Amino acid sequence: xxxxxxxxxxxxxxxxxxxxxxxxxxxxxxxxxxxxxxxxxxxxxxxxxxxxxxxxxxxxxxxxxxxxxxxxxxxxxxxxxxxxxxxxxxxxxxxxxxxxxxxxxxxxxxxxxxxxxxxxxxxxxxxxxxxxxxxxxxxxxxxxxxxxxxxxxxxxxxxxxxxxxxxxxxxxxxxxxxxxxxxxxxxxxxxxxxxxxxxxxxxxxxxxxxxxxxxxxxxxxxxxxxxxxxxxxxxxxxxxxxxxxxxxxxxxxxxxxxxxxxxxxxxxxxxxxxxxxxxxxxxxxxxxxxxxxxxxxxxxxxxxxxxxxxxxxxxxxxxxxxxxxxxxxxxxxxxxxxxxxxxxxxxxxxxxxxxxxxxxxxxxxxxxxxxxxxxxxxxxxxxxxxxxxxxxxxxxxxxxxxxxxxxxxxxxxxxxxxxxxxxxxxxxxxxxxxxxxxxxxxxxxxxxxxxxxxxxxxxxxxxxxxxxxxxxxxxxxxxxxxxxxxxxxxxxxxxxxxxxxxxxxxxxxxxxxxxxxxxxxxxxxxxxxxxxxxxxxxxxxxxxxxxxxxxxxxxxxxxxxxxxxxxxxxxxxxxxxxxxxxxxxxxxxxxxxxxxxxxxxxxxxxxxxxxxxxxxxxx
Amino acid sequence: xxxxxxxxxxxxxxxxxxxxxxxxxxxxxxxxxxxxxxxxxxxxxxxxxxxxxxxxxxxxxxxxxxxxxxxxxxxxxxxxxxxxxxxxxxxxxxxxxxxxxxxxxxxxxxxxxxxxxxxxxxxxxxxxxxxxxxxxxxxxxxxxxxxxxxxxxxxxxxxxxxxxxxxxxxxxxxxxxxxxxxxxxxxxxxxxxxxxxxxxxxxxxxxxxxxxxxxxxxxxxxxxxxxxxxxxxxxxxxxxxxxxxxxxxxxxxxxxxxxxxxxxxxxxxxxxxxxxxxxxxxxxxxxxxxxxxxxxxxxxxxxxxxxxxxxxxxxxxxxxxxxxxxxxxxxxxxxxxxxxxxxxxxxxxxxxxxxxxxxxxxxxxxxxxxxxxxxxxxxxxxxxxxxxxxxxxxxxxxxxxxxxxxxxxxxxxxxxxxxxxxxxxxxxxxxxxxxxxxxxxxxxxxxxxxxxxxxxxxxxxxxxxxxxxxxxxxxxxxxxxxxxxxxxxxxxxxxxxxxxxxxxxxxxxxxxxxxxxxxxxxxxxxxxxxxxxxxxxxxxxxxxxxxxxxxxxxxxxxxxxxxxxxxxxxxxxxxxxxxxxxxxxxxxxxxxxxxxxxxxxxxxxxxxxxxxxxxxxxx
Lengths: 619, 619
What we know:
homodimer; Xyl_isomerase-like_TIM-brl (chains A, B); metal-binding (chains A, B); 3-dehydroshikimate dehydratase activity (chains A, B); 25% strand; 3 domains; nine-stranded mixed β-sheet; TIM Barrel; alpha/beta; 2,3-Dihydroxybiphenyl 1,2-Dioxygenase, domain 1
């Protein structure tokens, strides 16, 4: 029996009914009503309560009640009056539990016994109405900022209607842990709030108010936190309380789905570790073992298909076959398959109409497509099926958050011979070994959702955020990579619409693939074998600086110069050589990359050179 | 003789020639060439040098040379080779001074004498080419992070081609000062970089890389810093080095103008304080003494004029006159004059065509309009003059950064009788005493520029940034106010286009007035006297919470309820009562405010209630 899943209304955008309807539609069991959402709403608490009941949502908590305990008179008495007014509201709502967060006022007295007495008085008044009070330590509380301090006060108050509220952010953001929680009786754990966050060296209040994330989107050990709470015997709701400026600006159902996905994923993460007694849910199907990208598919029309085929031809690709029943062409170079889909009335055609030429699908090789599909579905990513012809393959697929299809294929599955009339392999330039990485440009509000999707559904690991200087603003990049490095997906965002990334985002209405990097064991030889390739010109000044930075010899430098190649190093022996194509029809471009000696990055120091060259090319 | 004014190319957006041309066009004397801007540019250093000379710009500095000093072999030797390559580049550029910033590498040795020996060796090599080296302490340098440490090393190295570079950010961000600088010989002060910043509790590296501002836009004591450097005898360029993501995304000339304006303003600020010997420039005309807003002018067409007149009628205004020669109407209520301008072929008409009904001008009462105009011009805000008819008043005016006209009027000047056929005063509702504040909605990239404009040209003081929760995202608000409080201009920005502010910004293509607050001594009486006013409905829940929070009595509460009034308190006795109109044609709205007992804010805790109500009204 999984624990009830709840979300605080403050996580979501819009008016209170919009928030409630989204939470219910996505599948949450309950909500925390955030007071500001009620105050600014023009319906009565009773109406809100009725709406929740109609939607099948429990009201797990009403919050926050601030700056209550250990105040001198007359503030103490006024605070108790204030509590009575809020109890009125809660009874009209049908909310049973009130969150009291630790006092932040300078006037609060440094006397835990006063705090305990006040909370005992409040709990007594609550109990007379059938209500309860949960006390939470805010990380920036004036006298009480650790859960252990809050617990000492709750213990001293010793009232059955008073318990503890735990919040992962307030504990983990201070570098604190739940060590000692096992000494707290399980029935005193009234409520659990979960939030993740990026690691920021920011004051904890600003960090909390603006940069919280759903579990799995950030860098805090939220799974371990949940495990500790379950081990301590907690069996109440698991509730998300996320203050995030971007979430509040995003479509409410998208954010609600991300939230529920994060809780389902968390359940799964702790399965492996937690003792059986605390396992809260049936396990998810395991994440797939990944084995690279079988193909990338482009939505084109006939003229764009011809133009893209020609463009790819200059990069060493040849037309390896045509689909038997559809206007679909296979372009191939070594281990890289690119599908050009101009079939009318298909999902690809829809994509083309919206965006012009665009990547519309990727096929991932996974050990067990059916299991991967079942996992995706359990994580709220519905299966997708395009109509297929007689005798043609039916490939399981899901949609990424931007609508891109992700096909799931068994490694070694022969998908080409059945559906395609294949042509003999052309005499090739040195063969590519595969697709090294695929870069997507996203609107900033999409980043956290994409991270959670790839992390939860495919088990990819997020890497640290990088900052890349474009001539017209900053581009931020976060890569998700398979532990075995068979799949690498950098995600680029930019607040500016004038950057290279910002322009791609606009062209794709929020998200789209902007470049694909092909892997080669010898970039210089490859580039030399495709003299017609429209490679991005690299300034001489760049090579002068390479010479100064790395002390490369003349032969190495002139090979780089000749090949329009950029260069980077990492670790003891890692090196990276890469060249970029120009951009195809202002939509996407290609890269060839050679990794030497275990180089594990993406040439970030060269991104500024690329983006400046791209801005020159577009004039 | 003012010190030369310089700007680092990293402050500005675009390719290197765009940056140089903007710096020259705005009037800078020189630039710092930021290495990344050169590396990503496809012209040679010699060509860049020629362009600078053609534009009349000196190259004040080439930077940065990183991670040089106190490295073990073979890194030490490689670093010297690297320096020789950069000296080559500088000679081609025609740059004479290289900035070396303190080493951040873990490998750097904690041995100042090694650092001094290395810098001495480097300076010797530079001197043989006629070049010089300036050493700067980065706030996050590994061994050297304070200017005094850098100076000890420069002193020990004792080479005439080696000196110190000071940077206000690196010193002030650490809470350090220039105490002791008088012991450094003036000829050892090679270069001065200035940057301001907001006070953020952020790690100093992120703070520096993303949130620097031009002097006057932030909260660091940059003027005092500059004064100390001048007292120490420095007479080189004053140069801006600002890393700011938004500046990089904004139009290059706008940012360049802001930069030069900040340096002109700084000159002016230090005039008053610095001993005459160090005064670097002729003084600016003094900032005006302000005395409130004489009128606000709206751009309308005939139908919008009629509709707005009717709307204002419900708020107690009456048509007090018509212009003798133009399609301009005066609406008046007590001390508030609103001008409705539907004259074809005017600046107002241009504004109306672009945005629909919009505020196009404000008239400020200032002690000396000619002096205020001269000051504005000296601060790069050109005078503006609309054609006037025979015998009509010619009022001096400038343009705000968004194009809004700001007229400058002497208090008590009779501007109405000459140009307008005035009608007798209508029997009025309780008269308004004036305009309390005017709120502008801005795209986030405009905020810092507006702050500097109002601060420098009018001597307004920026107040701390507030955060206001809209149902669809966060709105940030920063107010500029006259010391005597006769002019208050809150500036609101939002990253989200869905917020109330974001929607106004979109409607106005980046910036525009979204509401005007009228002052009354008795808000309840005023509202009672205008029963037809389309006031914003306030939820009952809000009043229930007021009762809980402030313990207001029933009479007070029901007066607030009846009047659609919001309520706030500050300090011991300050109180604020205010009501909002609905929005006129989705463009702007009005507020009536009553300040009691020295209340000095704007009711920020109620902004969420207003914005939620506005989002309900628009459905």
